[in-house]
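Students often ask why inverse folding is considered easier than folding. One informal answer: many sequences map to the same fold, so there is more than one right answer. In these notes we will look at a single instance of the problem. The structure comes first.
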């Protein structure tokens, strides 16, 4: 039995591969170094016993990963057990056949460790890039998800839709090592997305980037109700939480070290969206407070926040984004170490004792 089969509560890390300057030095690493560090982070996560590693898709010069399947295939060759997922794949503007075959290939290469986390993305640059209109935003997602799920179920597929050519007894190759690829939908804050994930019977990865954890509880309830109403079993309705994280030896150390990078991250992300405001220290202290969903603090602080959310949601997966805002790699390495050695054992102990 593999490590991942033995554990009921999974913990992992992910990267969206943002490329930004270190706010303390003003220096920015190049694309090659950023990519090398992402692969090294995955190796460290695997060696440390974490369960999942993910990379996200963007099509901008300030991000270095446009093809998660390619990057994860490279990671699959230098890791042994860790699950490999997209976080996310922009399914609205990807051809579902290409997406499925790429991740089925990753599954073969990695010996059955591939997953797809589908989403609509934070930016819309992929729509004109691949010849789609944002006027079809919702319809594209619905149709492409429908086809993706059918491809996962059947080796030979016939299908008709509005946005791509029909399939007539098309052979879909290769088939994954797993019986089916695990498929999740990333959900930010919209009830419609939670309903869709439940109705389709796929996992829901809840992106929680701040605020009070309680405000996300309705989305969890909506997801499970929609799934059960659609005839899916509760065991099919996997729930994960993703969010920004920074772990220090103490609460104060974590807050002091992470503030410049977190402020920097939101400064250049908001600038991409036409806003250029900088986060004050007092705003950061409020966002990262003990009763919020932002995972910043000592190992015990992180344990308490994850356990509190587990009480609310009953989720079985937590993914931490630990490399944002130009954070130097030595700090990323330390986050992985603290997560694996000081957070995960306590989490699993408390969750096991609760059962």
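Output (designed amino acids):
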């Amino acid at each position: 039995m593999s490590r991942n089969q033995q554990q009921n509560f999974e913990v992992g890390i992910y990267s969206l591969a943002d490329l930004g300057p270190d706010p303390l030095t003003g220096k920015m690493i190049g694309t090659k170094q950023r990519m090398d560090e992402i692969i090294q982070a995955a190796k460290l996560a695997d060696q440390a016993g974490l369960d999942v590693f993910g990379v996200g898709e963007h099509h901008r010069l300030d991000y270095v990963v446009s093809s998660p399947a390619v990057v994860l295939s490279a990671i699959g060759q230098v890791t042994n057990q860790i699950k490999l997922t997209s976080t996310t794949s922009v399914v609205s503007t990807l051809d579902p056949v290409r997406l499925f075959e790429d991740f089925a290939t990753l599954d073969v290469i990695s010996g059955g460790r591939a997953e797809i986390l589908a989403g609509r993305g934070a930016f819309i640059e992929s729509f004109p890039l691949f010849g789609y209109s944002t006027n079809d935003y919702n319809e594209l997602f619905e149709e492409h998800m429908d086809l993706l799920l059918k491809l996962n179920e059947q080796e030979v597929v016939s299908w008709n839709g509005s946005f791509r050519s029909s399939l007539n007894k098309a052979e879909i190759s290769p088939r994954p090592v797993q019986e089916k690829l695990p498929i999740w939908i990333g959900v930010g804050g919209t009830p419609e997305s939670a309903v869709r994930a439940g109705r389709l019977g796929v996992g829901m990865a809840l992106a929680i980037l701040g605020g009070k954890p309680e405000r996300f509880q309705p989305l969890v309830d909506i997801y499970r109700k929609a799934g059960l109403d659609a005839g899916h079993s509760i065991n099919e309705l996997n729930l994960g939480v993703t969010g920004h994280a920074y772990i220090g030896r103490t609460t104060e150390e974590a807050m002091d070290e992470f503030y410049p990078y977190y402020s920097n991250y939101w400064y250049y992300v908001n600038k991409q969206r036409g806003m250029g405001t900088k986060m004050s220290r007092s705003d950061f202290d409020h966002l990262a407070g003990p009763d919020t969903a932002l995972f910043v603090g000592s190992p015990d602080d992180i344990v308490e926040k994850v356990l509190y959310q587990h009480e609310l949601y009953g989720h079985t997966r937590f993914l931490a984004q630990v490399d944002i805002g130009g954070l130097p790699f030595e700090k990323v390495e330390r986050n992985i170490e603290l997560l694996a050695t000081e957070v995960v054992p306590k989490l699993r102990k408390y969750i096991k004792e609760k059962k």
